[in-house]
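Internal ticket - ligand job 490, iron/sulfur cluster:
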Amino acid sequence: MRYAMAIDTRKCVGCSDCVVACQTENNVPIGFCRDWVSETVDGTYPNVSIELRSERCNHCDNSPCVRCCPTGASHFEDGGIVLVTHNKCIGCGACIESCPYEARYSHPDGYVDKCTFCIHRVRKGEKPACVSVCPTSCMYFGDLEDPNSEIVNVLKNRKFKALAPEAGTKPQIFYLV
Amino acid sequence: MKEELFVSGRNIPNIDPYLHIWHWQIPIYLFLGGLAAGILFLAGVYTILGKEKEMPATVKWAPFLVPFALIIGLFMLFLDLKHKMYFWQLYTTIRLESPMGWGAWVLMIMTPISIIWSASYIREVFPNWDWKFKFLYTFEAWVIRNRWYIAWPMAIYAVILGIYTGILLSAFNARPLWNTTILGPLFLVSGMSTGAACIILMSKSHEERRIISRLDLLFIVVELFFITHMIMGFLAGSEVQINAANLFLGGQFTVPFFVFVILLGLIFPAILEVLELIGYKMPIIIPAVFILFGGLIFRFIMVEAGQITRYLY
Ligand code: SF4
Ligand code: SF4
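stdout (structure tokens):
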């Protein structure tokens, strides 16, 4: 099993519903977020192109955050989901430094927090909150090792990219372009 | 032209717009670690060479600073933690892949070694010192007899500790300024140089100061070479590494880096040390203080600047 997400940058309208859904679902404290939407504008008017991306932890296959954690608080769960065990985390900040995507933050309670792929929902067979709420259905979540899954299908038929693959982290969020 | 913004509004404290998770505690931790490594290494080496008599400050007096430096260093690490009540978790796991983890362990090993080392000399400083218990006297006698054998692991561990202070940063691939293997040796020689400066400050023997000054000069030259090497390596690297080097070559850290680290922290004390060596009378305290100051600022700059550098996508 290898969970991953594919996000269609051509369908995303930048409404930030995924961000709000995550904050509600996961009780993210005000002023913080586990996912965010970035807009990259390329070119000068009138020749501009825009790319909208809903970003979050990439649940990397070769994740520096798991490697550098001194206590083992950052670890892999089934399906490659990268998780932080709150009462094992000492808040040293090493994992925040190690993430090329700035996907982690220091929770006001002291531990480090980030996207969990809504593992509590996924275990019940539901989709992550952000995926289920997206009004344009631009996100696909599923198991890369299941040849019949929607995500495998969409990755087969579309061009896609990952963010900063040169960082060597093997990110598992794919952006359809 | 390429422009990026967060449509959903993202302004997480200490992360946006620039990462600033590690504050002043980490540079001080690294500085004290390097200083301790430098002193213990020189103490170990001169004990192995059998020079205790000629080099009393190196072998006996300066190591008294080390337990304090290491304990304050560990305390700095503790201050940096945001989930402090779980500190003990650091010592329930050994994770060799985590520099933060093995640094905490190296310090845990170094601190008792340095305490034992200094304790074995305490009755030379305070002749009336009383150990109270007989077994402590027995232990002291054992340490004194085996100093030569303790000096070996001590010197080797000191090198590990010194390199570690650089590896703590260089292990982070995500921060291009840190992600260079030269940082280990660079922080090691810089630590040696600050350790030597401490010894010079504490030494009363002219001959000892001359020997350590000469060594220190060597450390400074090697350090300058490593810094040049590091910047050249970045300039020959990928875009993110070129950006990292540019922080020092015209970017926002240029002035503090060249004025405080290179000029005042390395070149100026090196010139004074050369003048002293060729016979001019110099208050030896001046180069030593500048070296310590330069070493501290160097670590502050590396920690601050490194956090700004990142991958572009
Ligand atoms: S995106 Fe960052 S936090 Fe998530 S797994 Fe990768 S390195 Fe770790
Ligand atoms: S902050 Fe917590 S999760 Fe991150 S590396 Fe330190 S102990 Fe591990």
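Auto-summary: The first helix of chain B runs from residue 25 to 48. Chain B has a mean pLDDT of 94.
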